[in-house]
Amino acid sequence: MKRYEVGQTAKEVKVDPYADFQGSKLELVLIKFFRSVAAHIKEVLIGVGVILLIILAIVTYVQYQESQFEKGTIALEALDKKFRLNPAIDLKEKIQAFEEVSSQYSSKKLELRLAKILSDLYARNGEFQKAADKLEWAGKKIDEPTEVKAYYFYLAGNLREREGNLAAAETNYSTAANLLTNTREANGFLAWSLYQTGRLQAKNGKKPEAIQSLKKVLEQDIKTPASDYNTVKQYATFLLVQLNQKG
């Protein structure tokens, strides 16, 4: 509140309108708050309206995504049943049918599910680049579990190798190995990822890096090694001997 004192010149003096207030501090805070809201009611209403619109948009989007996933899942189950009852259906027809489902429904969860299905079909059809693209996309979108994310990159590495793209294959195997580095429960999988990384590094002319990756295979601490881990240790040892003999 402003007050002006009379004198030779007008002087503005600020007066606290709550100076004589005798209630509690909480009451004073509430009074000041509601008076401030009343003074800026237009801005407050606009802000509340914007927040409500954002919340409504988020809820609508989530509901839409769930609806798309449910409808897409029903479509996938129908296709699966159709193809099981008619195993002679042409592979290209199957690919086209699943691609249509992918384009018809907008759902991240559905796309992740379709990525593996389409990747398998593309690979069977000899389209290794498209198959790898699907798995790499899915691997980037998956956050957890880490083992599944790594598995997609590992499979993509295999497909890139079959495609003849050894540089991309090495990158995918290396990505899988890096993802599994701190995952104790997947040491066997890590060993295979390291071996494949080292093998591709050797093919790509990266001998020092290959030796380092292969040595890591032998360093894996697995108390009760499974037979597949013993196998990959043998492969890594044999390749290390070959690399060392080449000088």
With strands numbered from the N-terminus, the spatial order across the biggest sheet is: 1-2
**CATH uppermost class of the largest domain:** Mainly Alpha
The CATH homologous superfamily of the largest domain is called Tetratricopeptide repeat domain
| Computed CA radius of gyration, to the nearest angstrom | 32 Å
Number of structural domains: 2
CATH topology category name of the largest domain: Serine Threonine Protein Phosphatase 5, Tetratricopeptide repeat
* CATH architecture level-2 label of the largest domain: Alpha Horseshoe
Percent strand equals under 5%
Unreliable stretches covering 5 or more consecutive residues? none
Largest sheet: 2 strands, antiparallel
Describe the structure using short key phrases.
single chain, 247 residues, mainly alpha, Serine Threonine Protein Phosphatase 5, Tetratricopeptide repeat, 2 domains, two-stranded antiparallel sheet, membrane
Quick recap:
By secondary structure, the chain is mainly alpha-helical. The chain has helices spanning 25-39, 41-85, 91-104, 108-124, 128-141, 146-163, 166-180, 187-203, 207-218, 227-245, and strands at 2-5, 11-14. It has two domains: 56-126; 128-246, Alpha Horseshoe (Serine Threonine Protein Phosphatase 5, Tetratricopeptide repeat), CATH 1.25.40.10.
